[in-house]
Design a protein that fits this description.
four-stranded parallel beta sheet; alpha/beta; 311 residues
Length: 311
């Protein structure tokens, strides 16, 4: 039977004693070291490593390559790692990793990007992340509430194979269609910009050249929202004339909000996810029972409450 834990109970259930087992080693495979958001997740892992005591993390870059990530997992198993943490390149390609870890009897924790086999994970495996439906609905509802109707909107989408991007986009469209606050908001364009600020800037510039100047930009993440804002400003569009939203509340996203470029973002506790993933891996390596799905809540951020999230 699968066990689920609400984010509010996270601290109590995932508390880790001051020192880990002597010489405990955990292998970590990250999708990409070049992704600013995943750097936040990794920083939380390092915090957990330091707090746990005698624990060593070996963190490797999968470079967005599914085959390379599987090879890294196999190498962690061969080297005798006590547990493995994976930020999946592709959630649809996790079954082989789950199977290899299960056969070796090594705990496996997925983080941030849910595995395809989430509902069938073995007892010594787990997932730590946030509910993407919550983030997309928060962002879209907030944007709709800021718009004068009728209005037009565009969606900037993350990688088309990425679970978070797929879910955020689907829920954004559902919210636009069925939420009273969004009545009168017309979706006129949606395209991928692959989480990238540069790609989003180029895409928004192309839309503007084609005569599409939206009243709202609903981006799957902060980086794309920032890129869209840059393109709009370069084209002479006042930030007072467009509502721009993102997700993740990264340092750059919060800075853009402080400058008046972003109107809303949604805080995803990446560092908290990283800490919880390592803490869960340590506990499973000790043979302790832990929830198989740990959900860390999203929180909406606007200029009214940005001070709570800025350092």
């Amino acid at each position: 039977m699968h066990r689920f834990l609400a984010g509010t109970a996270l601290a109590a259930v995932l508390a880790v004693p001051a020192a880990a087992q002597d010489g405990m080693r955990i292998g970590v495979s990250m999708t990409s070291f070049d992704n600013p958001w995943l750097a936040v997740v990794q920083s939380g892992m390092r915090e957990a490593e330091e707090a746990a005591g005698d624990l060593t993390l070996t963190v490797e870059d999968a470079e967005e390559d599914v085959a390379q990530q599987l090879n890294q997992v196999q190498n962690f198993i061969a080297s005798g790692a006590d547990a493995i943490v994976v930020n999946p390149v592709d959630g649809d390609s996790t079954q082989a990793m789950t199977l290899r870890a299960e056969e070796a009897g090594i705990p496996l924790v997925y983080v941030n990007h849910p595995p395809y086999d989430l509902d069938a994970l073995p007892d010594n495996s787990a997932y730590v992340g946030s509910d993407e439906t919550q983030a997309a609905r928060m962002e879209t509802e907030a944007i709709c509430g800021m718009l004068d109707k009728p209005a037009t909107a565009v969606i900037l989408i993350g990688p088309l194979a990425n679970h978070a991007a797929i879910t955020r986009t689907e829920v954004t469209k559902e919210t636009l269609a069925d939420t009273p606050a969004c009545e009168g908001v017309d979706l006129v364009e949606e395209q991928t910009a692959n989480w990238s600020r540069v790609e989003a800037r180029d895409l928004m510039s192309s839309w503007l050249t084609a005569g599409i100047q939206p009243d709202a930009v609903i981006a799957n993440n902060d980086e794309m929202a920032i890129g869209a804002a840059q393109a709009l400003k370069t084209a002479g569009v006042s930030m007072d004339d467009v509502v721009i939203g993102g997700i993740d509340a990264t340092a750059d996203g919060l800075a853009a909000m402080a400058e008046g470029d972003l109107d809303v973002t949604v805080f995803q506790d990446g560092a908290g996810q990283g800490r919880a993933a390592v803490e869960t891996a340590v506990a499973l390596a000790r043979g302790e029972e832990r929830p198989q799905a740990v959900w860390i809540p999203f929180e909406p951020v606007t200029p009214d409450n940005i001070s709570q999230y800025s350092n």
